[in-house]
Amino acid sequence: MLEKQMFQPIKEYLTNLGYAVKAEVKNVDILATKNEKIIVVEMKKQFSIKLLYQGCDRQRMFDHVYIAILHPGYKKTRTREFMHKVHLVHRLRLGLMLVDVNKNKVEVRLDPKEYKFKRNYKKRKLLLDEFNARKLSINIGGSNKKKIMTKYREDVIEVAKTLVEGALSTKMIKEKSGIKEATKILYNNYYYWFERVERGIYKLTEKGKKELEYFVNIVDELTKD
What we know:
Order of helices and strands: HEEEHEHHEEHHEHHEEH
Number of strands: 9
Structural class: alpha+beta
Distance between the termini: 63 Å
Largest sheet: 6 strands, mixed
Strand order of the largest sheet: 1-2-3-4-5-6
Number of helices: 9
Radius of gyration: 29 Å
Shape: elongated
């Protein structure tokens, strides 16, 4: 599939809207005019940094700038990855056209318009709460597929440390660990560290012992003088 095959569907779409359309005007892929309004379209088969900065460069001359890519299929347009790309295009105040060459159809996903920034205060609070609640700073930024220390894991470690010597009641675990949510942590058992011996009595699993030792060694190494 060639980029030039995208031209005809876009030309017909704009022509039907009353625009006069010309291609390859200087270094612009498509230029369309209607009365005083001017539209610029830059084409690539798919999203790329080059396409984005071409669009941004055209904004130095014109207000209504679109980037056009081949329609990736409706299933893909509903993915998180695609929506993130659309969000970026919106943030850059560019328009977005999806071109289906086989159906000779153009879908305008975005029109060029100012982006109104909306701060997500709920997510902001969750991040700051997590930051302030953590006692340790042992994670390495950019880590992937590694065990990350979170406030929840810190609490799990404190609960687990009370069980190193053997099984205890939930009441004793809560008192020794100082973790208010100890009973909930034991019940949910997300990391499979705990095993219920009988009603209200818990012990560490072999997995719990092994992973607790791993984290305790890291903490000791990073916090020693």
